[in-house]
Design a protein that fits this description.
TolA/TonB C-terminal domain; 3 helices; three-stranded antiparallel sheet; elongated; alpha+beta; 8 strands; 121 residues
């Protein structure tokens, strides 16, 4: 399995994030209401060989639901290009890890959109 160790890397990054100090200082961004999730691990989508040979290109956009820990719990397509590219993007998006969204210093579930640009160079 090609992504065998990547979930372990994502978990390690999450543990490091949790060890960071919380929002205790005045003027911290989380004092401003809602703070968007920030990616801390971004899996690059594999470009399927058949799609390369067929010269299929485009931008796939995946909407990811994040839990309170910043882990992707579900995905859905927002913009489709081709089934091969869509599946590669969904597979990669599922492995992303985020600094969680916050509402008034409390981690909350959130949605975010992740673009994957498949271009032949």
């Amino acid at each position: 399995m090609k992504h065998k160790h990547k979930p372990l890397l994502a978990l390690a990054l999450l543990i490091v994030f949790w060890a960071l100090p919380g929002c205790a200082s005045e003027g911290d961004p989380c004092d401003e209401g809602f703070v968007e999730p920030v990616p801390i691990y971004q899996e690059k989508a594999d470009y399927p060989e058949y799609a390369r040979r067929a010269q299929i290109e485009g931008i796939v956009i995946v909407r990811a639901k994040l839990d309170k820990a910043g882990i992707v719990t579900s995905t859905e397509l927002v913009k489709s290009v081709h089934e091969l590219l869509d599946n590669a993007a969904i597979e990669a998006a599922a492995l992303w890890v985020f600094e969680p969204a916050r509402e008034d210093c409390v981690s909350v579930e959130a949605f975010t959109e992740i673009p994957f640009d498949f271009r032949l160079h």
